[in-house]
Specification:
Length: 353
């Protein structure tokens, strides 16, 4: 009884914390801040371009997220969704800034159909994902279960030296299994968004910035064959998993398929497992500081692809003046440093931002 009371109390405390956090968090759409400070709090959401900021800060023990990308024409689309660009005199990130898996969408997992007679079940095609059937983005996975990438499917071949950045592309959904019980293919992982932090005076990064892709869903297991008398046959497969478009989920989920039956004297053959969905590609991180030796990086920059893969991660670019900043911990297949004393940005870049 005491343990039950303690559990109830803990659940009440957790619920109150969740309600408090949600009630006092703030959404920050694109804005000209006209010289004001912008100090974010735990649970806040930010997206799009934010410029003319005096001091931008994410305090320690604070987690801030970037909202999901939806393409133009979608009813959920908001200006600047899928990325965050910050232009301030001073930037200090002690907490966590997350753009994980909020870039281009992963594809839906495929479902299998049951076999009949001596024939195994086959792929029944696609299920309707949360957003779309197929993976999205210029470097999306094209084949079933194929990983998305940064600027090339399943990889990163970026050689740019300017301030251009990309979101990560989605992984394609997995193939459905052959007849059985639950044989859905897994949904593909969404690509990462991108983040730009641009400062005139100083950047201090002791926290974490992540633009990594999400992991594709594992395929469902094959079901047991059943004995119902007659010819062996696999059952109908389930629909594939939804693409990983919901921010609160890493992957989509598949629904159960029908059971395989044998109408003869032997039991039906077991169904085969659905294949895994492809991982999303990582998005880019760009840091720019226009003041000499005023960028300090002791935290973490994580632009990996889904499943913590490096090869399909996003590019990390660090533009500085004076001494090259300490690198902290960086997960990326391409890390590019640019000394602005030797190769300055065009004046128009600063003017328009």
């Amino acid at each position: 009884m005491r343990a039950l009371k303690e559990t109830i109390i803990l659940n009440i405390i957790f619920s109150l914390f969740f309600i408090y956090n949600k009630a006092f968090s703030t959404d920050y759409p694109p804005k000209d801040h006209q010289g004001a400070d912008l100090i974010l709090q735990n649970g806040d959401k930010i997206w799009g371009k934010h410029f003319n900021i005096n001091r931008f800060e994410i305090p320690s023990t604070t987690t801030v997220s970037v909202i999901l990308y939806y393409p133009k024409g979608d009813s959920n689309c908001k200006e600047g969704n899928g990325f965050a660009e910050i232009y301030a005199n001073e930037i200090d990130v002690k907490g966590v800034l997350i753009a994980k898996g909020i870039g281009y969408c992963g594809g839906s997992g495929r479902g299998g159909t049951g076999g009949w007679g001596l024939f195994p079940g086959q792929d029944s095609g696609m299920s309707m994902g949360r957003y779309q059937l197929f993976a999205d983005g210029p470097a999306k996975g094209n084949l079933l279960g194929e990983d998305g990438g940064y600027n090339i499917t399943g990889g990163n071949s970026d050689t740019s030296i300017d301030a251009s950045v990309l979101m990560g592309s989605g992984g394609e959904g997995g193939e459905g299994g052959e007849g059985g019980d639950t044989i859905d293919g897994g949904g593909g992982g969404g690509g990462g968004g991108y983040i730009i932090l641009c400062s005139k005076k100083s950047i201090n990064l002791s926290g974490i910035i992540t633009t990594s892709g999400r992991t594709g869903r594992n395929g469902g297991p094959g079901g047991d064959g059943k004995d119902a008398g007659g010819m062996p046959a696999g059952g109908d497969g389930g629909w594939g998993g939804s693409s990983s478009y919901l921010y609160s989920y890493d992957e989509g989920l598949g629904s159960p398929g029908g059971k395989g039956y044998n109408e003869g004297t032997t039991s039906g053959e077991d169904g085969t497992s659905g294949k895994n969905g492809g991982a999303g590609g990582g998005g880019a991180i760009l840091l720019i500081c226009d003041s000499p030796s005023s960028m300090t990086i002791t935290g973490t920059l994580d632009a990996r692809g889904g499943r913590d893969q490096i090869q399909n991660g996003g590019t990390v670019k660090i533009f500085y003046k004076g001494d090259q900043p300490t690198s902290g911990t960086i997960y990326s297949p391409r890390i590019y440093y640019r000394n602005l004393d030797l190769l300055p940005l065009k004046p128009t870049y600063w003017f328009f931002h």
